[in-house]
Specification:
The protein is an alpha/beta fold and 226 residues long. The protein has a single domain (34-164, 174-224), classed as Rossmann fold, CATH 3.40.50. It has helices spanning 34-57, 60-79, 99-107, 176-183; strands at residues 85-87, 111-116, 125-129, 135-137, 143-145, 155-159, 162-163, 169-170, 189-193, 214-216, 223-224. Strand 4 and strand 5 (143-145) form a beta hairpin.
Length: 226
């Protein structure tokens, strides 16, 4: 499906999850220092390029093994949630491919959804997903359920480009995921999934960045800020 955009300078290119479109911006009543935002945006763009190249270079069998372990870690988290509703994502470019896990989770009775971009600078909506459901291409040609059955997740799972020890997730720069978490009440459990090799010292979190509750890599025990 092509490469994720590196940042605001390439908004029309296909992407992975609906977490793209612009770099840092002002969201709601949150004011962002423009000089700091510009510096962080430049750094993040370069770091995304490095980390995506690193992720793609990981051997396929290693990614498959880690993805299977991430699935077990997700199972443990969902086991503690009453009647879980999980939003997942459609993977590309070396991201953990959880589609097999989604099929098994559905068979166990877990309600599943995929995120859909509704409009620029707006929260995502979540459409019910089932194995074999009809799919269509949405924004950036990301597959999404064609039937608009909306559900509200209690657990959101998002791929990460990088992550830091404080459970901040470096995404693709559009702010859709953070904006969506901020809009949901009660806020769902936020889970970032990726590989241990993508760990960095800090993402230089800004006022609009929301830390994950869990970071799952499959290579070590789940990291939690709780």
């Amino acid at each position: 499906m092509g490469n994720p955009p590196d940042g605001a300078d390439s908004p029309a290119r296909p992407a992975s999850s609906p977490c793209l479109a612009a770099e840092l911006d002002s969201r709601g009543d949150v004011a962002i220092d423009p000089v700091q935002a510009r510096d962080v945006a430049r750094w993040r763009k370069a770091e995304r390029e490095r980390l995506i190249a690193l992720r793609v270079s990981l051997p396929g069998d290693e990614r498959d093994h880690l993805t299977a372990e991430i699935g077990h870690q997700l199972d443990a988290i969902l086991a503690g949630v009453d009647q879980p509703v999980a939003s997942v994502y459609w993977p590309i470019r070396g991201e953990p491919d959880l589609r097999g896990w989604m099929t098994r989770a559905h068979a166990r009775g877990v309600a599943l959804a995929l995120p859909v971009v509704v409009a620029p600078a707006s929260p995502l909506e979540f459409r019910r997903w089932r194995p074999g459901c009809r799919m269509e291409h949405g924004v950036w040609r990301i597959p999404q359920p064609a039937e608009r059955i909306l559900i509200t997740p209690t657990v959101t799972v998002a791929p990460l480009v990088g992550y830091d020890p404080a459970c901040y997730r470096l995404g693709y720069g559009g702010g859709f995921f953070d904006r969506t978490l901020a809009s949901l009440a009660p806020r769902p459990i936020a889970v970032g999934v990726g590989y241990e090799a993508l760990a960095i010292v800090t993402i230089f979190p800004q006022a609009v960045d929301i830390p994950m509750d869990w970071i799952l890599t499959g290579a070590r025990p789940a990291v939690s800020r709780r």
